[in-house]
């Protein structure tokens, strides 16, 4: 996740032998400074990993948090969690309760059929830059080493930047989508899926599929969508008539127009025909 570009490992080779010999503390300071800048989510890491940040495939299988497998003391330098967690491979930050920890390496292991992830060479009580989902940056947040019980959540601090990325998408394309619902369920989201399907979702606004998606996201249940238009009987303004035209000839000069006024009925066999109109035919 992101990149492994290292400036810190090149510091000593970029200064003169005299400087490296006479001012070893300066070299050590520069190395530590650039190491900090290279941690995942810090300026150098973001700068050299900008292409990864823009590529939605970067967010495949990113693990937002894992469960602490073994208790930690304030001096422990190895953190073990359950499952093969997809955290940054090197120089990543994890957060347990209020403490942030810098680890140098991440490795997947398996013991007695149980999968674990170990973070080694940890620096306890690390200071970090906190970024909220809304984009509010709090620089140089200090934390202190402390004991932690097994079973606690071990958060992937790099995931904060994914949250910020997703919130930017939501604020632009999903304005009706509740921001608090998104944030409260953030650890359960697949950022890749949301970012890739955003266009489809945006274009489907108002359709049964989008309504169903909203309902499932908000209430975690399938929605049965009924369009009452399909059940309405629309009255028709058409006039339905079944006409039978009969040609009559009067033998005694009777005014046939009177048949309508008097509600006359013509009989032909077993059929009856009420007289509705009379027209003269020449």
Topology diagram in text:
Blueprint: H1 17-22, H2 24-38, H3 43-48, H4 50-54, E1 65-67, E2 79-82, E3 90-96, E4 99-111, E5 114-120, E6 128-131, E7 137-141, E8 153-156, H5 159-173, H6 179-184, H7 191-196, H8 198-203, H9 208-219, H10 258-261, E9 265-268, E10 271-274
Antiparallel strand pairs: 1-8, 2-5, 3-4, 3-8, 4-5, 6-7, 9-10
SS-derived structural category: alpha+beta
The ordered string of helix (H) and strand (E) elements is HHHHEEEEEEEEHHHHHHEE
Main sheet? 6 strands, antiparallel
Mean pLDDT: 79
- Distance between the ends: 97 Å
SS field, number of helical segments: 10
Task: For the largest sheet, list the strands in their spatial order.
Answer: 1-8-3-4-5-2
């Amino acid at each position: 996740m992101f990149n492994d570009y290292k400036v810190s490992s090149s510091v000593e080779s970029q200064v003169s032998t005299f400087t490296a010999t006479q001012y070893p503390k300066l070299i050590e300071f520069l190395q530590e400074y650039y190491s900090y800048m290279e941690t995942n989510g810090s300026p150098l890491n973001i700068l050299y990993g900008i292409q990864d940040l823009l590529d939605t495939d970067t967010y495949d299988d990113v693990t937002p948090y894992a469960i602490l497998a073994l208790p930690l003391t304030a001096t422990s330098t190895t953190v073990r969690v359950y499952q093969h967690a997809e955290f940054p491979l090197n120089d990543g930050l994890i957060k347990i309760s209020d403490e942030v920890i810098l680890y140098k390496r991440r490795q997947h292991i398996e013991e007695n059929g149980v999968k674990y992830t170990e973070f080694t060479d940890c620096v306890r009580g690390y200071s970090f830059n906190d970024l909220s989902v809304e984009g509010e940056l709090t620089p140089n947040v200090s934390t202190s080493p402390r004991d932690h019980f097994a079973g606690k959540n071990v958060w992937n601090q790099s995931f904060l930047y994914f949250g910020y990325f997703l919130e930017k998408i939501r604020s632009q394309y999903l304005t009706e989508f509740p921001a608090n619902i998104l944030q409260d369920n953030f650890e359960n989201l697949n950022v890749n899926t949301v970012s890739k399907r955003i266009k489809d979702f945006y274009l489907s606004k108002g359709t049964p599929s989008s309504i169903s998606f909203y309902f499932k996201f908000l209430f975690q249940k399938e929605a049965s969508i009924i369009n009452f238009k399909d059940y309405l009987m629309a009255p028709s303004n058409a006039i339905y008539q079944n006409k039978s035209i009969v040609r009559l000839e009067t033998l005694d000069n009777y005014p046939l127009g009177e048949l309508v006024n008097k509600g006359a009925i013509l009989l032909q066999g077993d059929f009856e025909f009420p007289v509705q109109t009379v027209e003269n035919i020449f």
